[in-house]
Specification:
By secondary structure, this protein is an alpha/beta fold. Helix content is 33%, strand content 18%. It has an eight-stranded mixed sheet with strand order 9-8-10-1-11-12-2-13, with helices on both faces. Strands 3, 4, 5, 6 and 7 form a five-stranded antiparallel sheet that branches.
Length: 419
Amino acid sequence: MQVYMASKAIVLVCDGMSDRRCSALGWLTPLQAAKPKSFDWIASRSECGLMDPISPGVPPGSDTAHLAILGYDPYKHYTGRGAFEALGAGIELEPNDVAFRCNLATISEDGTVVDRRAGRISNEDAETLSESLNGIRLVRNSDVSVLFKHTVEHRGVLVLRCEGLSRFVSDVDPHKIGVRFLHSRPLVDSPAAKKTADTLNEFVEVSRKVLLQHGVNKRRAKNGQPLANVVLPRGAGTLPMIEKLPAKFGVRAAVIAGGAVYKGVCKAAGFDVLEVKGATGTVDTDLDAKMRAAINAVKAYDLVFVHVKSTDVVSHDKNPVKKVEVISRINKAFSTVVSEVDLAETCMAITSDHTTPSEVGEHTGDPVPLALYAPGARYGNVERFDEISCASGTLGRIRGIDFMPTIMNYLGRVPMYGE
């Protein structure tokens, strides 16, 4: 009898796909309502279970959840989201840099936040406005260099570059509308934190003037569109010092994603970032192109990590019906992977980084479903990939930091502990 051993792995993470039972769907979860056939096929031949990305009941951020899924305890290794956004945007961070994730947003004359997404501003307008912010010269903090780069839609990355800065400063973004934007303040009593907070506040002041005078905003005003008249930074972060996953397990690893933070977390962990045309990080992302890229990538890499953002986008929009549609589209695209890769040597996992209930619109601490296919896996009686079915699987309930070692065990990459 021929014995098979996995030598490759494809991990599909659908952001915020995990959900709760929805009244709009007859009290089914979107996964149950979608009935994703390729996901179900994998689940029926997989070790299935539930995963707590951080720990039971703790709502994970996308950054900390991905750190955990890659095997890094976020309580030990998390140094702020901004650094991951910057890395994912293609900025090579220096040890003293402090980076922030940012929104181009709309505020009223008195500073009240009207729209944190500036009317879901187009990539084209946001890119043009972002170019005008890059390299802004400050007066009070003239020794600090400013880097600003657009990522997706209203999102961007700000990097402050200078010695003597600190990530321990508060956000300018209030994280909600109807209140005034905030002034950053130091979170620790240190000259570095005070300097960073003052620099951040000066950047916001100067950038408001630049944005207000920009031709893009003048056109948007004329057309009755919301102005992108402020930058709201948040999530100060510095370069994390972590052992690279490829070195730890002796594998070549690559990530396929549209959003900067997901590329950034993987890049920090030593993954190669594969750019795929049409991978936008939004609902209109080219799923077929991403799956085709995964099929090609697994020929050269041992581990291919595929991230899809669209499930989280519609969850935050509180649209469970649309979420069912998006899951169905992902499932259809993923069926190509299932039909074309060599199942005798490929391990495949399907999961989510966190639960985003589509009738709540925010991340919650519910566990996420997980299906792990591998040659010879000890699968049970699970027939469907959803939050309820997977709970009865043979994998049980695991932590996010246990996920990657479980994958690597099937690839024969985990050394024995002891003798």
